[in-house]
Design a protein that fits this description.
4 copies of one chain form a homotetramer. The first copy, chain A, has 11 helices and 14 strands. Chain A is of the alpha/beta class and 338 residues long. The first copy, chain A, has an 8-stranded parallel barrel, surrounded by 6 helices. In chain A, strands 2-3-1-4 form a 4-stranded antiparallel sheet. A two-stranded antiparallel ribbon of chain A has the order 5-6. In chain A, strand 7, helix 3 and strand 8 form a beta-alpha-beta unit. Chains A, B, C, D: It is an enzyme of class 2 (transferase).
Chain lengths: 338, 338, 338, 338
Amino acid sequence: MIVVLKQDSDESDITRVNSKLVSLGVQTQVTVGSSGVVIGLIGNTSVINEEEIKGDKSVEDVIKVKEPFKKANRKFHPDNTIIDICGRKIGGEKLAIIAGPCSVESPEQIISVAKSVKDSGAGFLRGGAFKPRTSPYAFQGMREEGLELLKIAREETGLPIVTEIMSPYLIDKFIEDVDIIQVGARNMQNFELLKELGRATRKPILLKRGLSNTIEEWLMSAEYIMAGGNENVILCERGIRTFEKFTRNTLDLSAVLAVKKLSHLPVVVDPSHAAGMWWMVEDLSRAAVAVGADGLIIEVHNDPANAKCDGDQSLKPERFDNLMKSLKDIAKAVGREL
Amino acid sequence: MIVVLKQDSDESDITRVNSKLVSLGVQTQVTVGSSGVVIGLIGNTSVINEEEIKGDKSVEDVIKVKEPFKKANRKFHPDNTIIDICGRKIGGEKLAIIAGPCSVESPEQIISVAKSVKDSGAGFLRGGAFKPRTSPYAFQGMREEGLELLKIAREETGLPIVTEIMSPYLIDKFIEDVDIIQVGARNMQNFELLKELGRATRKPILLKRGLSNTIEEWLMSAEYIMAGGNENVILCERGIRTFEKFTRNTLDLSAVLAVKKLSHLPVVVDPSHAAGMWWMVEDLSRAAVAVGADGLIIEVHNDPANAKCDGDQSLKPERFDNLMKSLKDIAKAVGREL
Amino acid sequence: MIVVLKQDSDESDITRVNSKLVSLGVQTQVTVGSSGVVIGLIGNTSVINEEEIKGDKSVEDVIKVKEPFKKANRKFHPDNTIIDICGRKIGGEKLAIIAGPCSVESPEQIISVAKSVKDSGAGFLRGGAFKPRTSPYAFQGMREEGLELLKIAREETGLPIVTEIMSPYLIDKFIEDVDIIQVGARNMQNFELLKELGRATRKPILLKRGLSNTIEEWLMSAEYIMAGGNENVILCERGIRTFEKFTRNTLDLSAVLAVKKLSHLPVVVDPSHAAGMWWMVEDLSRAAVAVGADGLIIEVHNDPANAKCDGDQSLKPERFDNLMKSLKDIAKAVGREL
Amino acid sequence: MIVVLKQDSDESDITRVNSKLVSLGVQTQVTVGSSGVVIGLIGNTSVINEEEIKGDKSVEDVIKVKEPFKKANRKFHPDNTIIDICGRKIGGEKLAIIAGPCSVESPEQIISVAKSVKDSGAGFLRGGAFKPRTSPYAFQGMREEGLELLKIAREETGLPIVTEIMSPYLIDKFIEDVDIIQVGARNMQNFELLKELGRATRKPILLKRGLSNTIEEWLMSAEYIMAGGNENVILCERGIRTFEKFTRNTLDLSAVLAVKKLSHLPVVVDPSHAAGMWWMVEDLSRAAVAVGADGLIIEVHNDPANAKCDGDQSLKPERFDNLMKSLKDIAKAVGREL
């Protein structure tokens, strides 16, 4: 950590700031130059509350040299984390393909989609039971009933199920019923929920990136879960909010590379929510595999034209099947397998 | 609502889409032009699930003519909503000034700040007990103990208290203890929390705008609370996330005007979090009053250099006192009083 | 085009707006519903000045059904445009690889890099002679002298040269010396420059997307060049400005898909400027090819540690050579060749 | 300037980077801590090419302690710059009010608007002759003829004229004819144009902030003009591009404060282009004066419903007159006069 003082700081300002830093338990090294004074901190700077230092009238800036995340940091855990879900792995050589409808709508729908995505080679079934909707008047999901249908689909196909949690009240139920618990983009900084998911379970958490959250904030939210003891976090890039209106969001594939550099956690990509248009999903899926993602999460619906939500971003089973075939060569080209 | 069909739609496409719309209970009017086909919907279009329509292969776009919020909509409630909190009003001619520290830190701190802001003319006391922090290792607030201290400060000064809720588990406690329950920017789309705040209480909710949420999404979140039965919602603009890095966020004062046009709900401005720098707070406060905000929420700390959080955006009590004086003329110039 | 009237419009408002539209030469169809009045326009709506209509007090919104670009529009030109540069094609089955240093720095540097990228399989040489720099005190390029060195490098290798134009004064010189004239991101809406490049030459123009320009604006800038008569426009996605700070810009690969859908023009991707970090360039290049780009533009420098600009985003020749090899399989997987 | 080395840098890395820095003519001070190595630079760091340093494989980051702008920097010029235009001042106690239509459309229009804004108290006349339009098919302005009409309006009213330059070819004409030469948002980083405006004239330049340019980039563009010798630069905040779609752009009033802190140059605000809706202009104008802007630039049109461009953001003369009256009290409250 480096503390930069204001250019007009005098001897007493330097002494005051320096003494405060020393009193907090770090060593300091003061450099006085024509362009100002900088104080370099040596030792365990994680005890320093950056904002407390910035409050001093002579402090121009506090610059972090180390990343603020620890358990999620690759520096302290150089090997990739591979997460095991009922014998299936996420983060290893084999790509994880999670597929299914936006919402669970009926037994027929979820079972039929589950079977077809399994036949095409998907390893996990997704489906929303509790749906975060912008409008209180929109379909809010089948809720508990939807969970039950997902369990039936799992029984029929053997596919582990991935679904979103929206309230801490439901944690016990999700721990019992769900194989991968998803935290949606809008809840990425719902810190109380994250803390409980860290404390109460070791079930894998699929943590979606918030609509306008930086990569550092995203990793800090993973850190919330990990700090509680649950290190089974899977990150999911799903597009960020930008000025561009043609696509629903802007898929940020460079975020996959950034996360891989900064952290050891696996990262999957959700092209369906990013683009918001089914006809972009196949090409973006290929790009996500080419860039090095550990997997994909793709919306598939047997009847998109009548889907209760996000019909226009869902692939039909036949298209999904074709996509899976075309992904094989891309995966191989980057040293992965499907 | 207007449904635009793709240019290459043929007779059967038009018939299919039109029949579907009619079956949903609306009347339609089809216009066929050289630039394509549009279907205008007449009747209660709120029954139409936009996404279901968009899923049809011939639909190019669905255009909403009416805003999706109802209870928050000024069209159905032309007069300003004025909210009464222990006899003090928000939304009327008199400006609501909410002031206090970022976090409650000790009895001395909160009582001293409460007294001083009251003396300067503030009408409400703010102070964080539960703190949403990006890092799990940062100070998380004094939590329940902080709430107790706020109650003591209220007793000493008579100022109603405003503090942030982060978990649905605490709703009962907040209903009992707090005068205005704040929902922070990061929880603006924590829909389960919003629903409960709508159902369980009639206490006023101060709903901050999310970091990158549109004005429409913000009003839809207010609608979540109102749909549950609690119409006492106060909106709070606190800066949005943009590419600019000099300020912590970009204060969007045009949002105040947009909200006033679209909705009858009162809206206050938080210049402290928007700018992230205390020296901008006074000028931005004057601008917020000039633009027509119904009040301000300002961070004031007796010792910013040692504040546990956000010290660099807090005003000292003397500065806050000066600000209050200078606001009088601005308020008068725009037909308000302090 | 659809004109939506305000909900409180009365008979005389409808008549006034409708008459104005008819007087402009289009047919209209008025739909009166409970949710308001809409007027659908039939005929040649390109004569309508949208802003003129919006100025009427009863007009709520004017909605375009057709895209505003014509010559760049795929609807009127379904086949891909393939551009021929000295016998090399951009937009066809074979990918166009443009490589070279950020700036031309010396004869040795540019000739050595040119030879090495040619040996690795690049088809075009890039190199900046006139450099757009944020600071007037930064290296501004070797300017005319740089152009001369590029010509020598072309003679030595046979690679066509691509370089950026910054001023209309230099158009004649560029037409004579350069094979593909690049318009940089900051000049994407320098309309006077675009007009002259449309009028004065048929040389291919490589049009980079502006830092925060929408896809529609980008295509409208292509339209400026094409409207002047020069239809040889190559689009280049190079990252957009978002809130994320880890990468210099955010590479928007979905823009490639959008452009391919909306337009027949070829589009290449510049991963070097997007990421701003050399270690991301290879993976992003693979993703760009996988998504369907028609080519890549990559910074390669023989001595990045001492480059005069953008050293940290340049690949060394050996790495570029490896990248080219690894691209072959990806290209094949998506039906292209290198 | 501070150079941060990567954590795994060894003795030889430190020596290599340090020697390079010393060879460039600065003194260095190396601090080795557990959190890495930092090298503080002492002396004239403006000779250091940041990117050259960043290219070294051991360099993690280069942190600027000083702003990169000099002539625009308040540190070297503590007093406000006041610019004199034909005896009228911008930057002093009196607010500069620049008003007029988006485009010059006819002699009657421009003279009538000029007279009315003068009567209301405006000090300068604006009007576009050369118009930057997204579409090549949109009205491009009356061009040279528009300039002539502005001169006639100036003769009739005595108001100095402000109009936008779009091409370096026209600099001589603008120098002769125009009192304040405007550089539009889209040309803020048209560096060749900026350089010529710095070299060729001492006429004041009104430099609009680019749609998505940071405050630092904006000041660097001012620096381009000033470095050429023309220190008469007036900055203009006109809204930035964000995710919000309700307003055309997001007016960033905190930018006024940032510019005032960092620079001595005057800054005016354009609420008309920022909001894009006439009914927001009055309130935003009051906010801009309250925040401390040195003036306003406002679109006024005698017949907005039939304006050739931007009719929906133009005020009618009567409304402008009322606005001017209401600004008086706000101006007085912040120590300014109208």
